Amino acid sequence: MRITRSWLAVAGLSLLSASAEKHQTAFGLSVDATADASAPDGFTHKHEAGRCAIRGHCGKQGFFGSELPCPDNGLAEEPSADTRKTLMSICGDKWAEGPVCCTDEQLGALSSNLKRAESIIGACPACKDNFFNLFCTFTCSPDQSLFVNVTNIAPKGDKLLVTELDQLISEDYGSAFYSSCKDVKFGATGGKAMDLIGGGAKNYTQFLKFLGDKKPFGSPFQINFPVPNEADFPGMEPGSDKAHPCNSTDERYRCACVDCAASCPELPSVKEAHECKVGVLPCLSFAVIIVYSVFLFLLILAVSGHVAYAKHTKSRNERLRLLQDASPSDDEDEGDIVHQAGLLEKPTRSYPLNTVCDRIFSRLGRTAATFPAITISSSVIIVALLSLGWMRFTVETDPVKLWVSPDSEAAKEKAFFDKSFGPFFRAEQAFLVNDTLPTGPGPVLSYDTLNWWFDVENRIRRMKSIDGGYTLDDVCYKPTGDACVVQSLTGYFGGDFQGIDPDLWQEDLEACADTPVNCLPDFQQPLNPRYLFGGYNNSVIDSTAVVVTWAVTNHAEDTFELERAMDWEESLKGLLLTVQDEASERGLRLSFNTEISLEQELNKSTNTDAKIVAVSYLIMFLYASIALGATTLTVRDVLRNPANALVQSKFMLGVVGILIVLMSVSASVGLFAAAGVKATLIIAEVIPFLVLAVGVDNIFLIVHEFERVNISHADEPVSERIAKALGRMGPSILLSATTETVAFALGAAVGMPAVRNFAAYAAGAVFINAILQVTMFISVLALNQKRVEAGRADCFPFIKVKGADSNSMAIAGMPGLAGIEEEGALQRFIRKTYAPALLGKKTKTAVITIFLGFFTIGLALLPGVELGLDQRIAIPSDSYLIKYFDDLYDYFEAGPPVYFVTKDLNATARVHQQEICGRFSTCEEFSLANILEQERKRPEISYIADATASWIDDFFFWLNPSLEECCVDGSHTCFENRNPPWNVTLHGMPEGQEFVSYLQRWLESPTTSECPLAGKAAYGDALVVDNSSLSIPASHFRTSHTPMHSQSDFIAAYKSARRIAKDITSHTGVEVFPYSKFYIFFDQYVSIVRLSGALIGGALGFILVLSSVLLGSLATGLVVTVTVGMTVVDIIGTISLAGVSLNAVSLVNLIICVGISVEFCAHIARAFSVPSPSLLERCHSFRGKDARAWAALVNVGASVFSGITVTKLLGVFVLAFTRSKIFEIYYFRVWLALVIWAALHALVFLPVALSFFGGVGYADPDVDGGLEQDLASRRYRAMMPDEEYYSDEY
After folding, report:
1. Are 847 and 749 in a shared domain?
2. If I label 396, which of 10, 228, 845, 1093 is the partner at 20 to 30 A Cα–Cα?
3. Is 576 helix (H, G, I), strand (E, B) or coil?
4. Does the residue 801 lie in any domain?
């Protein structure tokens, strides 16, 4: 075992061995007959002022032992002038006169040892003075016998050695002494000095016991500190000195806040963002529940009152009827007028904008149908030209560039940090865990396991990378210039297993964990056991996990050095995968992560998901193609004449419709790729799904409307029928496409690249898809209709089908209508059953009540949506990283490092030095170091766990001339003869050019056990020094966060660090920002709630404006907007219950929810605003808005259900089989909620809401009310069976 014997060994207890000199008198050794009979037992017989108890060195008890003092009860003596001078230089001016019990030789040893102790506690003048006073008094006090009593001696030749003694310390002094030192920090480790000089003592008795216990590297003899009392120690009394408190009003002894809690200013309390709650419910949830409850109560009262009034009225009418003639009224003969109620509500007023849009789309449809070849070829050429941008297509996989805006503060700060101090080192980490036992986790450490693990680390050290042959030494992080940083328990033993004693390894390991500075690794920085062990309570020997971290130097992107590091990491990953099997054979488990692992596993997840996504799209493609053919092809028709199926099928039309969707995606990707907008994996996986959801619905609407026109205007040319169909559906497509494009385009204003790029690609794809649908698809539809009328086969138009119904045999003698049924089964169900039931008065009231209840629940669940994206969700469920992240949260008890970075600091000026320092008496009360120290004391709020490594404090202490191994000029220390001398008031400390010169020397000084405050290891890359301007453009103050065990911990820690940096800047004026490696990924969560609200709110605002303008009614636009808003709220409430957290991925999906919700609602709203006259004729009992809502459902309800709802459900259900948790959670759950809620709101709530609150209706521009329209309408009705048309069932 290699243990570095540091200053602790001699700075603490071995000071006691320096208190005696080889000076022994016969008087001291003999039993004095005049000794007081009442004196305490022992070898110090006289206890009186002016008399000693020990003096001189009499030898050692063993070869490796320390010198032991001699018992000497003689009188104190006057020292020589030189001795007096030496004593005063060590112990102060209070020793300027009077006899003493020490000599020059003793003072030499005392001086050497106290200087070593000063390197630990010198930052706190009170602790230092009390410590010095204790040992100076013990060694040299002329009244030594009054408080020291020798109780045991051992012979050594003709001499006696003191082996045990009692020293009396008063409770007041001991308590004050301990209090002055208990909070002192040691700069090299940031740990407490009490851990070094007092063994981690919790009170003064433990402190004194640690000082007095005989131990190999402590006191060479036993010192007891009994409680002083006259009965047990007659004639003895503790010294009268008083210990200085660390918060002394005397500036010479006052300690800084960092080392003395009592000196600290009280920071203002933090107004935490406590969630407002009423009991266990958030205030928002409580408020909406109360409001809804009041609404429900009032509704029940209203309904009850209405029912009571109706019964009363009915009863009164019945009584009146008995008194009157029961003959039928003339009004009852007017049944025909009531029966045709819908005609009474047919709008007659036109909307100019709607008329203009209708004419434009009619001309467009006519042109596309008349010139299909030109239209199709032009569309293909334009899409092909746009798709040329694929040559510049690149996918962004860097998480930083995906989720962080390059203009955000976090990105700028990361760039500043990387430029100033170099990129944050790359970390390779492994956990060796013993949790495979049936009885549960057990100790992971054993002698055999240590032997095997030492071999593993040696293999890693010798391993050469596969491609370049690089070793760890080539790529590792070397702060001292020659040794790699490897945080492992092997560092306690110098990396050499041969030095481990099989019988003592446990004691040695515990000793190193207790005092890491005694077991420095090669890179000369103490190893905190929190970074090495996990799952233990008291002893590290009981640890259930050990942690090993290899630090690798990071470099800028696209550099050879970075490629070299990644090459070595790839080889390390392969080796550790092999080591996993070795660990399993030993009954242990190894988990690990390399810097390249996460990105690799994310890409693997995408490759796995690609198959599932492809299957999902394929199923939607097939359904859409088959369902389109089913609009005019029924089972009855196929059975009657199977040949008709070959003609009436629209499979090829469906395929073309799907191809148009893919063309729009290709064109959008090509367009934005050419513009330099990088694609993301989200775009590749989501955009086709999104455009398919929008595009298929429009295709269904166009085809269904065209079939109606085929029946009502069958004798017109195909181009005219196409014009009429597109004239009616075009404005509806314009409404949905415009609102969706704008909703998606809003996301392009977001700084987050993943969201911004997705929004751009989505908006472009939806817009291009709409253009292709009203041009290219219309041309294909016209060609398909000509094929049908020519009796040619679907998919093979060059084959004429024999046996199919000929044109002359068509229904009612009209060409092209062979085999066409008047309406599909779904549309008939909606017309006859669903719409009438939905629009009944009682049903409408129930629907509004129930959906407002859903909305209330959604609002109540909003506060329950958590923030974050757990890495374990983003990778495949069988990834080796899953166990690593589990172990990281379960066993790693150290938080990530955090740096508070200063910018453009003029640290050469005293005033600015005082703004950032913390360990000197004149530092500002709210200096940077003091604020960080106070924040450390409230970790539950600040999430700061460790003391701050303050470079300026350690630099100034490095100049302390009492540290003879630190700043040295030749044979003298730098500040040995400085005037004024080095002091804790900063008076006379370097400024200007002198400051910079000494600072650069400090940064180049190697950190060693003799001078642990030297700056090379701890601060070599922590400062940027500008010689020309004598300033510090960049520096950082290092501390660490508390352990992070959840996404909420990371987010809270980041927000807290931001708050602290802001406080520091406000108090000091120094520009400060916090930096930790994980901040860049969590910056989004500071604003994501506000961003989500702004995006969704902005989208809803645009939807309101566009829908109001295009529909010609603010009321109708408002109903559509409210419906979309309610849909999104219900979706968010659902994902809260489904465990979906809010992050950039779910934000993208929420934007999709807004867009697709509009698609569900727009066509129904358009059909309500401009109802079909032929359908209104068939509305027998509804009046006004109810009639138009009924007509809208019958007109487009079937298309919305079959074209988007069923299509999406089929596609979404396939995603349930993915192995990727991120797809299962963020896509399957969210999209399933989207389809269900959007369909329910569009097909149930929206018609009811429109019937209550919808705006005015307008006449269809295609209907002029003339003879032609009347004949067409009559022709349509003539095709209906009598029982259908004249039935009272709508």
Report:
1. no
2. 1093
3. helix
4. no
